[in-house]
Amino acid sequence: MTAARIDRTDPEAAIAEAAKAYSNWGRWGEDDVLGTLNFLDEAKRREGAALIRDGVSFSLSQAFDMDGPQKGWRRRTNPVHTMLATGTDAAMGGQGFPHGFGGADDVIAMPLQCSTQWDGLGHIFDHGKAWNGRPAEKVVTSEGDLVTGIEHMASHVAGRGVLLDVGLVIGQDGELPDGFAVTEEHLTATAGSHGVTVGRGDLVLVRTGRLARARHEGWGDYAGGPAPGLSFSTADWLHRSEIAGIATDTWGFEVRPNEFDHAFQPLHQVAIPHIGLLIGEMWDLDALAAHCAADGRYEFWLTAAPLPITGSVGSPVNPIAVK
């Protein structure tokens, strides 16, 4: 399905067609809990590690603090950071430790998807079905994701990273406008401009420039509002390329508003429960992009392990790219 052929009036049919055409159900057995991370094997990690030349590293995470982008949409809030013990407590000698020993402790409360994060395989369902065709009600309950909890992915997300700076190649001043649908043609043109290939087992990072715009315009509706993003038509490419995972600098990965009337995140509905694709959102790709533009290398070692939170359907992450 190309972007030009998308029938805005019939999201149900388009989703059903794509789900059937691009399904990976059963590909790695009925007990699979990794989805497309199965493509990221030992050989791919060796390939990624060999890309380290200068040892320069970049954190691709936004800050986790009260000044983040969340405004309560879908009951998501910014992190609440509270100190349990402070230097003031220690200076007053009220901590109860001997020989002048003092310390500080803290706690944080936050939705797991309020900042830079991965969507787990239990995050999205299609007509009551979770990844690999399992009944959604038997996968995720009030006790969490009992089958595909993100803890299963904790040791797997490390390998060859590829940056596709679509904002730079296709946009103006390094940014794409809200509502811009990134198609397969845009992705392949960007890869060609960068001199990189994308294929099996890669961790692909797509920069739209949306976070950069939020930095100079203010958060506005960055979390939950209009944004550039992947076109629904890229479902074919996401399946065919056999990438292990993909992340963007936007809150919702796919273009907003969506390309259908009366739809909500239709590409998620295909990519997660049917393709089994690991999706990352709200990644900070700006410093990495600047370095890639300067040295002309858009591939690197990337490690981005989710926190092994038992039964979670998503996880905060501090991705590290090393060149």
Automatic annotation (TrEMBL):
Primary enzyme class: hydrolase
Alphabetical list of Gene3D superfamilies matching this protein: Putative cyclase
Presence of keyword Nuclease: no
Any Pfam family: Cyclase
EC number: 3.5.-.-
Keywords attached to this entry: Hydrolase
Gene Ontology MF annotations: hydrolase activity
Family matches, as SUPFAM superfamilies: Putative cyclase
Classification via PANTHER family: CYCLASE (PTHR34861:SF10), PTHR34861
Protein name according to UniProt: Cyclase family protein
UniProt organism field: Streptomyces massasporeus
